[in-house]
């Protein structure tokens, strides 16, 4: 039996992340804390650190190749040794129906964890999924992360 540690942030909580290392470390902590089959939503403007956090999460599952946002493909599947990770970038999606037509639900079910960027249109569909907002700070060497849900 494995014990899942609590998520590193409670709903409503914020934290300053100093440098890429802490961005990766939060992703890695989430990897260990999210139960199998979880969805994680990420929002945040250009350069806020969404891909960096995802890289940390995927890396913690043992997938060491570079991670990039699937802006044009919409979805990437990383065959991590610790379990498949689905990475969705819904920025260019006008209607979430497009994602369902790409078998989103089946891919989520078949993944250890699914990270969905810009997925506001799916928040109601996955009501238990945590939402993290990433923001720039006056200090360019830091980012602010807030768990919205
Ligand atoms: N906590 C942090 N502190 C300082 N720099 C960071 C932090 N997290 C990420 N960065 C840096 O910010 C830059 C942008 O990060 P990243 O590509 O992860 O952002 P993004 O939200 O995915 O952006 P985009 O919307 O353009 O895909 C990278 O150069 C990365 O090294
Ligand atoms: Mg990105």
What does this structure look like?
The protein has 149 residues and is α/β, with parallel strands linked by helices. Helix content is 25%, strand content 28%. It has a single domain, classed as Rossmann fold. It has a seven-stranded mixed sheet with strand order 1-7-6-2-5-4-3, covered by helices on one side. It is globular. The mean pLDDT is 95. It binds adenosine-5'-triphosphate and magnesium ion. It comes from Deinococcus xianganensis. Its main location: cytoplasm. This is tRNA threonylcarbamoyladenosine biosynthesis protein TsaE.
SSE arrangement:
Blueprint: E1 14-18, H1 19-33, E2 38-43, H2 50-60, E3 75-80, E4 83-89, H3 97-101, H4 104-109, E5 113-117, E6 131-136, E7 142-147
Helix pairs in contact: 1-2
Bound molecules: adenosine-5'-triphosphate and magnesium ion.
Adenosine-5'-triphosphate binds near residues 46, 47, 50, 51 and 69.
Main location: cytoplasm
GO biological process, one term: tRNA threonylcarbamoyladenosine modification
Pfam families: TsaE (PF02367)
Give a short summary of the structure.
This is tRNA threonylcarbamoyladenosine biosynthesis protein TsaE. GO terms for molecular function: ATP binding; metal ion binding; transferase activity. The protein has four helices and seven strands.
């Amino acid at each position: 039996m494995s014990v899942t540690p609590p998520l590193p942030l409670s709903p409503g909580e914020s934290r300053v992340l100093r440098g890429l290392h802490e961005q990766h470390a939060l992703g890695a902590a989430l990897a260990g804390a999210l139960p199998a089959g979880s969805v994680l939503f990420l929002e945040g403007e250009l350069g806020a650190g969404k891909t960096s956090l995802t890289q940390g999460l995927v890396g913690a599952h043992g997938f060491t190749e570079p991670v990039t946002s699937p802006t044009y493909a919409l979805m990437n599947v990383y065959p991590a040794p610790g379990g498949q990770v689905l990475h969705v970038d819904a920025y260019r999606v006008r209607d979430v129906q497009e994602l369902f037509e790409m078998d989103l639900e089946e891919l989520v079910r078949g993944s250890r964890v699914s990270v969905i960027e810009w997925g506001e249109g799916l928040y109601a569909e996955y009501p238990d999924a945590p939402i993290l907002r990433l923001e720039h700070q006056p200090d360019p060497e830091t980012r602010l992360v807030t768990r919205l849900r």
